[in-house]
């Protein structure tokens, strides 16, 4: 048996010798990765499979190391320094840069929440339930989870909700994709088609969302993990990476095996579009149920994580109390108020039928521009604030830096197509 040192919510040191001690450590990585496959990402994966078939599997596989290396840095930064991402930026680069990162993160978080609430509304409408019912219920659930006074309870609730995404695996089993065509797609790269490159760029630019970095670093701090827990938290992040990319690949395969084999094109821009597209192949009710479960799970867990990431980022810059391990009181009221307002604002905007197209475009541009800033800070902080034994060295540093630069480049590239510049 191995020993692991963990602090409880009161700051007391506990030594765990159980063979299942890793269960006490795992969570932040799994949760942030499940949130990464939110409603928007799943729709993008479906579009990728429908338009380019199995050729979109390879890019999803290649994104696994990219996603892991960025989030792994947040693990070391959070556990070693005991500080969130926004707090480290404020202390090392000043309030100006901290406000820039926190402000854009907050706007990005609200924009992402709009997408998630639209997803929740779409799932409800699949079954004839009005958004005036589903969105208030979802908002109350998400706000209530955070008020339980324990990060671990929030984490468990998030993992339970997010696990619904795995339901879509059943759809692929029912569809019976052709393994030979899948193998051929893995070695086919239509790089000369601009629409293919655009979809690849969209996936690369979105693989590491800025709020993911703020969330996981804040989560490992709130969980009070010791440096001995770093290897297990790395495993947590790695397994989460495989799960989230696996879910994306499952969506690509499902729509490549169905929509990718039919002539003509159908719109795949909403939850109902996805269900309608699969209905002829697996039946109307199975399509609604499996699409509904996966989109609802992804939307709710992403809404939880995005709101927490934005709240942690803002309150860290303001130097306010920002822990989920304390129930609502006068000292931490700002943290809970900001978290609640994020959900309420997102819900009200969706219910008000405000034209969200321009907002969505603005948020995409904001994410693309923020990603180089956040990844740049991540690399500099890793080199600046960590003790030498916890830093990257040699080939490891070169590979990680190179991959981050590639993602940063794709993020900037996506600004042009999004705005119609090129």
Quick recap:
This protein has 19 helices and two strands. The chain has 422 residues and is mostly helical. Strand 1 and strand 2 form a beta hairpin.
Element pattern in H and E = EEHHHHHHHHHHHHHHHHHHH
Largest beta sheet: what is the strand line-up?
A: 1-2
- Kindly report the oligomeric state of this protein: single chain
Q: Supply the CATH superfamily name.
A: Amino acid/polyamine transporter I
Q: State the end-to-end CA separation.
A: 58 Å
Rg calc:
21 Å
Reported for the largest beta sheet, the result is: 2 strands, antiparallel
Q: Could you please say which CATH topology applies here?
A: Amino acid/polyamine transporter I
Residue runs with pLDDT of under 50 for 5 or more positions: none
Structural features, described:
The chain is globular. Helix 6 runs antiparallel to helix 15 and helix 9 (about 170-175) runs parallel beside helix 13 (about 230-255). It has 19 helices and 2 strands. It has one domain (about 35-420): Amino acid/polyamine transporter I (Up-down Bundle), CATH 1.20.1740.10. The protein is about 75% helix and about 0% strand. The chain has helices at about 20-25, 30-35, 40-50, 55-80, 85-95, 95-125, 130-145, 150-160, 170-175, 180-185, 195-205, 210-220, 230-255, 270-280, 285-320, 335-350, 355-385, 395-415, 415-420, and strands at about 5, 15. The model has no long low-confidence stretch (mean pLDDT about 85). It has a two-stranded antiparallel sheet. With about 425 residues, the chain is mainly α. The chain starts with a strand and ends with a helix. Strand 1 (about 5) and strand 2 (about 15) form a beta hairpin.
């Amino acid at each position: 048996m191995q020993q692991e040192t963990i602090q409880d919510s009161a700051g007391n040191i506990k030594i765990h010798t159980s063979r299942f001690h890793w269960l006490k450590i795992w969570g932040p990585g799994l949760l942030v990765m499940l949130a990464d496959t939110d409603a928007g990402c799943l729709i993008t994966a479906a579009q990728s499979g429908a338009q380019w078939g199995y050729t979109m599997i390879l890019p999803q596989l290649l994104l696994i190391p990219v996603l892991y290396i960025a989030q792994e840095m947040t693990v070391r930064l959070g556990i070693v320094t005991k500080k969130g991402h926004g707090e480290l930026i404020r202390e090392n680069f000043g309030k100006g840069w901290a406000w820039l990162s926190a402000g854009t993160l907050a706007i990005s978080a609200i924009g992402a929440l709009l997408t998630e609430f639209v997803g929740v509304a779409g799932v409800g409408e699949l079954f004839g339930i009005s958004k005036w019912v589903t969105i208030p219920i979802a908002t109350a659930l998400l706000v209530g989870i955070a008020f339980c006074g324990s990060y671990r309870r929030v984490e468990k609730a998030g993992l339970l909700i997010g696990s619904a995404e795995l339901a879509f695996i059943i759809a692929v089993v029912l569809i019976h994709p052709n393994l030979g065509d899948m193998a051929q797609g893995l070695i086919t790269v239509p790089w000369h088609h601009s629409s293919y490159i655009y979809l690849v760029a969209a996936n690369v630019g979105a693989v590491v969302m800025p709020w993911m970095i703020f969330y996981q670093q804040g989560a490992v701090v709130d969980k009070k993990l010791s440096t001995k827990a770093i290897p297990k938290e790395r495993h947590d992040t790695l397994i989460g990476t495989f799960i989230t990319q696996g879910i994306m690949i499952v969506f690509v395969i499902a729509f490549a095996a169905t929509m990718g084999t039919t002539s003509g094109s159908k719109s795949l821009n909403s939850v109902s579009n996805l269900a309608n597209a699969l209905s002829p192949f697996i039946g109307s009710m199975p399509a609604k149920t499996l699409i509904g479960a996966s989109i609802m799970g992804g939307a709710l867990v992403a809404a939880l994580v995005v709101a927490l990431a934005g709240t942690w980022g803002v309150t860290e810059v303001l130097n306010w109390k920002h822990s989920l391990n304390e129930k609502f009181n006068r000292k931490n009221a700002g943290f809970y108020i900001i978290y609640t307002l994020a959900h309420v604002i997102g819900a009200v905007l969706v219910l008000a039928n405000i034209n969200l197209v321009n907002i969505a475009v603005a948020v995409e541009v904001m994410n693309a521009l923020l990603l180089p800033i956040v990844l740049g800070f991540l690399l500099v902080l890793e080199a600046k604030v960590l003790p030498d034994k916890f830093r990257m060295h040699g080939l490891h540093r070169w590979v990680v830096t190179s991959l981050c630069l590639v993602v940063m480049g794709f993020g900037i590239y996506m600004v042009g197509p999004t705005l119609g510049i090129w």
